[in-house]
Amino acid sequence: MDHGCFITLEGGEGAGKSTLARSLAERLRMSDIPVDLTREPGGSPKAEAIRETILSGRIKPHGPFVEALMFSAARIDHIDRRIRPALARGEWVICDRFIDSTRAYQGALGHIDPALLGELEQVTIAGLVPDLTLILDLDPKEGLARAARRRNPGEAKDRFEGENLTFHRKLRAAYLAIAEKEPERCAVLDASLPPDKLAQAAWEVLCERLPLNQDADETP
Ligand code: T5A
Question: Is the CB of 146 within 6 Å of ligand 1?
């Protein structure tokens, strides 16, 4: 293959995206597929600096559109410096969060005009649409509990973990609406499954939808 596949993982707080991303990367590498595992916001030095600014909550007072601009600025650098070069080298890229996070958190929850956000998205990604997006669906109470258990003692909640349960319930609905609107790109996974079962379910989706030449029934 002369161009790698681009996979994104999406979902609410503590849904298990990072855990699943690591597991899928390991399994692809075992299949001799080179993988670049990355995340948003972040993934390149400049984007990581913007991540720190946004997640500290310093941008929150400026409102959701300014936050969307900041996420987009980080995304442009990440795409140019890391994602496109990796795909061009034939690597597969697994990205922990991408455009759907902006659509859900800033768009649906921040009530930004969808047409305006759509234009910003087009300028930002310039045609780089994921080949596959796995949406990890989980009761937000469970996701927030997982995120809380993982925090170090004394560590504060980040900008979005600090939002109330209603926010996180709406977020879950926003993700499911995206999946319903774009079923060819998105697959919803039951993130209440234990990590190994979730990884197997995700692997089966990869085998079904991407050019893997693997037997989907094979266990790791
Ligand atoms: N954001 C981001 C926007 O608002 N707009 C945007 O455009 C973008 C790109 C990023 C924040 O920025 C927002 C969204 C976010 O609020 P982040 O620190 O990257 O912040 O946070 P998250 O992406 O939410 O990642 P988390 O680290 O909170 O959660 P994950 O990655 O979903 O979960 P993970 O894998 O770290 O697991 C959490 C805990 O649960 C356990 C793990 O061991 C860990 O302790 N776990 C499981 N337990 C049971 N069953 C499973 N299947 C499990 N999988 C993991």
Answer: yes
Q: Is 217 among the domain residues? A: no
Atom number in ligand 1 closest to CA 99? 7
Flag whether 123 is in a domain.
Answer: yes
Number of domains in the chain: 1
Q: What percent of the chain has pLDDT over 70?
A: 96
**How many helices (H) and strands (E) in the chain?**
9, 5
| C-beta 109 within 6 A of ligand 1 | no
Q: Is the peptide bond before 64 cis (omega within 30 degrees of 0)?
A: no
d(C-alpha 52, C-alpha 74), whole Å: 11
Question: By the 8 A CB rule, do 38 and 93 touch?
Answer: yes
For 131-174, write each residue's pLDDT tens digit: 999 999 999 999 999 999 988 888 888 888 889 999 999 999 99
Residue owning the nearest CA to atom 7 of ligand 1 = 102
Q: What is the structure's pLDDT at 216?
A: 45
Q: Looking at residue 147, which CATH number applies to its domain?
A: 3.40.50.300
Distance CA(171)–CA(101), nearest Å, equals 9
